[in-house]
Specification:
3 domains, binds flavin-adenine dinucleotide, 17 strands
Length: 413
């Protein structure tokens, strides 16, 4: 039986481990934390997973939250006008073709670790350094590194300068989970509420968290600007007050969310900065042995476009297929490069869409966002970029194509 080890028990690593175990492979997962520690720990992310990712979770039978998770069915877009304006300059609402879901990764990863153990997977609790990977390459047929976006493996998986647009963080991030104060629902669309402004972005969406349904509220601040205020904030009340102030000042039409809410718990906040990067996913150890990166360890995007967990899922699905198809052949460098290329065929679209979101929108994109207010087909197509960023290329990457689409959609409307 082929022995495979996955270092890192996140969205990418656990889905691949579960899929391979279900297919009869002898799989070991190296996790930094136990399921219990994960459940009781600090917020990890705010990962909203769209329909293609949910379909893979469903295929593996690990979509355990169908009865309780609030649906993310809509995308409400708000473009801020001049500072101080109480209403957005651009605003539209579209319904996703299929709903998305945001299940707190503390619940999700803990449940998946438990499920992996239940079906006979081996779990080792350890934090592996790059130097410690060598013995794994002797004991296992394939070593996968799914250790996320941290800098620890950055020397092993070198930055691909050609494919990486940025070399520094493009946003200061923050997220907080809120529970409702009274009986009234939060005054927001039933899905991703996304605010765009010249100083950064904000989002709010329904989430299933450790305490039940909550609203995840986050900011993506352009470094040095007025939304870049999170570096020293650890206290939930301070985080909440700042969030309320920023909403009231920069996205006032959404301030009812904080007015109706309070912090869900002292560990339900996260702040930080992410450097978007595409890496060479094949790492070479001093012995010459090769290891393969997956998920954020291979391709990290800023969370602004909600693509990271979705691409981590895609990576797990693509690598699983590649491993199954490979049969008994050795997992050599050629296999690894081919597997990553199959993943990149998807991830390049998410990366392009996400990277462009970090830059000021060019005039033809602004025109599209404005037209989306009056032409539902345009709003619908834009909203669908979150689950299917492949549609971005050849449409919003091309001013002529986007102008053509707008005039055709206008004629149809
Ligand atoms: C605030 C915020 C909001 C986000 N919102 C979204 C969203 O809406 N949609 C979306 O798709 N994505 C979102 N993301 C991104 C998403 O969370 C990540 O892209 C996704 O979790 C990546 O999955 P992964 O498995 O590659 O890495 P991770 O989820 O980071 O998992 C890596 C795992 O490896 C473990 N690990 C790390 N180092 C080691 C080591 N040395 N040894 C052993 N284990 C190790 C970690 O403990 C962790 O369990 C968001 C991120 C943030 C921060």
């Amino acid at each position: 039986m082929r022995r495979i080890v996955v270092v890192g028990a996140g969205q990418a690593g656990l889905l691949l481990a579960l899929g391979l175990k279900q297919n009869g492979y002898d799989v070991t997962v190296v996790a930094e934390r136990t399921a219990e520690a994960l459940r009781g720990g600090r917020l990890i992310s705010n990962a909203c997973v769209f329909a293609p990712g949910l379909a893979h979770e469903r295929r593996l039978g690990v979509d355990f939250w169908n009865d309780e998770v609030p649906w993310v069915s809509e995308v409400a877009f708000f473009g801020a006008g001049e500072p101080g304006e109480q209403e957005p300059a651009i605003s539209w609402l579209a319904t996703l073709d299929e709903h998305a879901e945001s299940v707190d990764q503390r619940i999700k990863m803990a449940a998946w670790l438990d499920e992996f153990a239940r079906i006979g997977g081996e779990i080792r609790i350890a934090s592996v350094t790059p130097d410690e990977l060598e013995p794994y390459t002797r004991d296992f047929d394939l070593v996968l590194v799914a250790a996320g976006r941290g800098p620890q493996f950055a020397d092993l998986f070198k930055r691909n300068a050609e494919l990486s647009r940025f070399s520094t963080p493009q946003r200061a991030l923050s997220a907080i989970y809120l529970e409702a104060v009274g009986e009234d629902p939060f005054p927001m669309a039933a899905g991703v509420n996304f605010g765009l402004s010249s100083v950064g972005e904000c989002f709010a969406l329904p989430v299933l968290s450790t305490t039940g349904p909550v609203v995840g509220l986050g900011f993506f601040g352009i470094p040095g600007g007025p939304l870049d205020v999170w570096d020293d904030v650890t206290d939930q009340d301070q985080h909440f007050e700042l969030a309320h102030k920023l909403l009231s000042t920069h996205f006032p039409w959404l301030a009812g969310i904080t007015a109706n809410g309070r912090p869900a718990g002292p560990l339900d906040t996260i702040t930080g900065r992410v450097t978007p990067v595409v890496r060479d996913a094949v790492g070479t150890l001093p012995s010459g042995a090769k290891v393969l990166a997956m998920g954020d360890a291979a391709v990290t995007n800023d969370p602004v476009g909600g693509q990271g967990a979705n691409m981590a899922t895609r990576c797990a699905a693509v690598y699983q297929d590649a491993i199954l198809e490979h049969g008994d052949k050795p997992f050599d460098e050629e296999f690894m490069r081919r597997s990553f290329d199959r993943f990149w065929a998807h991830a390049r679209h998410a990366t392009r869409f996400n990277s462009d979101l970090l830059e000021p929108p060019p005039p033809h994109v602004v025109d599209t966002l404005i037209a989306a207010q009056t032409i539902p087909e345009v709003a619908q197509r834009f909203a669908q970029l979150f689950p299917d960023p492949a549609d971005y290329e050849g449409w919003l990457t091309d001013p002529e194509a986007s102008a053509r689409f707008l005039s055709e959609a206008r004629a149809r409307a």
